[in-house]
Design goal:
5 helices; 125 residues; 0% strand; single chain; mainly alpha
Length: 125
């Protein structure tokens, strides 16, 4: 039961952090830069942890799931990316929508690869 409380608490913290960053950096151009940055940072940190860069945070550590599933799961968001993309398309901003999706995918992959590399794992792309 404690495990789920810790994961849930970390998730709440991740959601609050995401909301605060989104409010601190509102989109004035229509491009959702805050969500893009949040998702790329989240991909980097998750891969850094999974690769073992933080030696004390291993899968057998009770806080591993709190950080990975709880905090980072709530901090990053695929649903917001999807909603913002659909909104851009509905507003006929196809170039922004396409740029956002491509930057999200390839930026996340690049950030993840860098996180793995810095964490000590070799990445082949």
């Amino acid at each position: 039961m404690k495990k789920y409380f810790v994961i849930g608490s970390a998730g709440a913290l991740g959601a609050v952090c995401r909301t605060m960053i989104g409010q601190a950096f509102p989109s004035h151009s229509g491009f959702p830069a805050a969500t893009l940055a949040i998702n790329i940072v989240g991909a980097f940190v998750l891969c850094l942890i999974v690769a073992g860069a933080i030696r004390t945070l291993k899968p057998d550590n009770p806080y591993y799931e709190a950080v990975t599933t709880g905090f980072l799961g709530a901090f990053t968001t695929f649903s917001t990316l999807s909603w913002e993309t659909v909104t851009l398309i509905q507003n006929e901003q196809l170039v922004l929508a396409t740029s956002y999706v491509l930057l999200s995918i390839f930026g996340g992959l690049a950030a993840g690869a860098i996180g793995f590399r810095l964490g000590g794992k070799q990445v082949r792309i």
